Prior knowledge:
- With 283 residues, the chain is of the alpha+beta class.
- The protein has one domain.
- The chain contains eight helices and ten strands.
- Strands 2, 4, 8, 9 and 10 form a five-stranded mixed β-sheet that branches.
Amino acid sequence: xxxxxxxxxxxxxxxxxxxxxxxxxxxxxxxxxxxxxxxxxxxxxxxxxxxxxxxxxxxxxxxxxxxxxxxxxxxxxxxxxxxxxxxxxxxxxxxxxxxxxxxxxxxxxxxxxxxxxxxxxxxxxxxxxxxxxxxxxxxxxxxxxxxxxxxxxxxxxxxxxxxxxxxxxxxxxxxxxxxxxxxxxxxxxxxxxxxxxxxxxxxxxxxxxxxxxxxxxxxxxxxxxxxxxxxxxxxxxxxxxxxxxxxxxxxxxxxxxxxxxxxxxxxxxxxxxxxxxxxxxxx
Length: 283
């Protein structure tokens, strides 16, 4: 679910280290965003233009952000949540599998051979557990696991949010926020205007759509309450899939990629809707 930091109080070295990392992350993100807008984004758009016209820019240099900017609606799909039943999870260590670079649009390598069912992902397990115990959170496995970590001085923490579940009250608030997210999606549907980021997916070498990390909680919520469709963003495609597609169409590389993604959208629209995942949603 996240990192565990060992601390015993506000002045404990572990707590101070966590606060420092959270501050460094916020500061670093602002700095990187400013650098991207001022330098990297114009440079990435220039590389895209050269690449699109067949210039000497390899696929591996194409930025995910720029590809989404330029292709826009072609990277947007509306899928039944149950269709996204596998998530990419390359091994972190001990295997000769390169972890995909989330900044890039084209992903080479064997990352698509390392997947697991979405139901085995820690985020899905968390959301399903708290939803099934929403009337009595303290009976959930998630509550007991988080409290056990807290009592052992290894509280669950997420650096980007500066979140540390080091008290029972904070644990309960965190779990109730998860329930509120599921209830909101059940009652209002999937509202893109309230989403901080897209639900990202990737296309593997065979054209299959796989889930990546961004948006796992919202996807789990949509499955648990049985939404018919959700909007997702094609954030990455396998380099081998692109090699297979680019010779099938004419025009610039951008035009060929645009048509290939449109075909993916058309193919998914023709597929029969999958059964919704089991949940305990109220009618």
